[in-house]
Amino acid sequence: MSLRLDGCCVTYLDDGARVSALEDLSLDVPDGRVVLLTGPSGCGKSTVLRCVNGLVPAFHEARLTGGVEVDGRSVAGMTLSGLAAAVGTVFQDPRSEFFTFDVTSELAFPCENLGWEGGSIRRRLGEVAERVGITGLLGRRLARLSSGEKQKVAIAVALMPGPRTLLFDEPSANLDFPAIRELQRILSLLKAKGKTILVAEHRIWYLMDIVDRVIYLQDGAVISDMPIEGFRRLSERDMRSRGLRSRDLAALQPEATVRPSASGNVLSLENVSVRLGGNEVLKSISFQANAG
């Protein structure tokens, strides 16, 4: 079993207040499986990932009870360097996890921290860059990359120490459509390589051909845990009752018959000016928007 959470309860300590995030949550994920964690905002998806990578309670001020295991080892008994080698994490905003200024240095950074020899780092860097498709980005300034390019670099960084388990926290949140397609390709590749993957997401259409299971969380508890086949059979009414987004990309596309109309005005602004704190932020703005 690659991942195991056994009766986990997490309570965050927020300015003296106690906020419950997980309630007696148990979860088993076999090696090589891809699991989607979904549910409304604040349901506990990110907290599950933080338990697995050790950020709770090592970084976030919280009380954790219950057991968490990765590759048969208790997370509580692992060193931070041991966890870094076993679990890779990709966050919603890659900029929050970058430590250096250029792509090559960023890829080398985790292995340098683990004490790898220089030649081994260079070989690994070349392998990972080719696998993720960022060889052309090596040496580039991180600040000059697009959101999609930064996300690919973040994935490559997570792969550098060679973890068997990967965690993705809403990885598509800041990406446009082509970048989501590229993320989809990389996740499919990682699955084919036998990686164990947990993805916490609201946007789910791009994962339907990748995930093996879908776990729906609410108020820190598992409400449903079903294989992808069962999730596909959920009715649209069931999806809406859970507040879940569409599973079908085609359903998200505008109908081809919809055209802008010369009539049917639905929004009109005329000479709108706005001052905030003594500053003029809008000056005589006028426009109309038609239906469609």
Q: Report the count of strand segments.
A: 12
β content, as a range?
A: 25-35%
- Assign the structural class, choosing from mainly alpha, mainly beta, alpha/beta, alpha+beta, or little secondary structure: alpha/beta
Strand order of the largest sheet: 6-7-8-3-9-10
N/C terminus separation: 51 Å
Question: What is the 3D form?
Answer: globular
Low-confidence stretches: none
Q: What value does the average pLDDT take?
A: 92
Instruction: Tell me roughly what share of residues is in helical segments.
Output: 25-40%
Report the order of strands and helices. Answer: EEEHHEEHEHHHEHEEEHHHEE
Biggest beta sheet attributes? 6 strands, mixed
Structure description:
With 292 residues, the chain is an alpha/beta fold. It has ten helices and twelve strands. A six-stranded mixed sheet has the order 6-7-8-3-9-10, with helices on both faces. A hairpin with a 2-residue loop joins strand 4 and strand 5. The longest helix has 16 residues.
Overview features:
alpha/beta; four-stranded antiparallel beta sheet; 12 strands; 292 residues
Indicate the topology.
Layout: E1 3-14, E2 17-29, E3 34-38, H1 45-53, H2 55-58, E4 62-70, E5 73-74, H3 80-86, E6 87-90, H4 103-113, H5 118-132, H6 147-159, E7 165-169, H7 177-192, E8 196-200, E9 213-218, E10 221-227, H8 228-232, H9 236-241, H10 249-252, E11 265-276, E12 279-290
Parallel strand pairs: 3-8, 3-9, 6-7, 7-8
Antiparallel strand pairs: 1-2, 1-4, 4-5, 9-10, 11-12
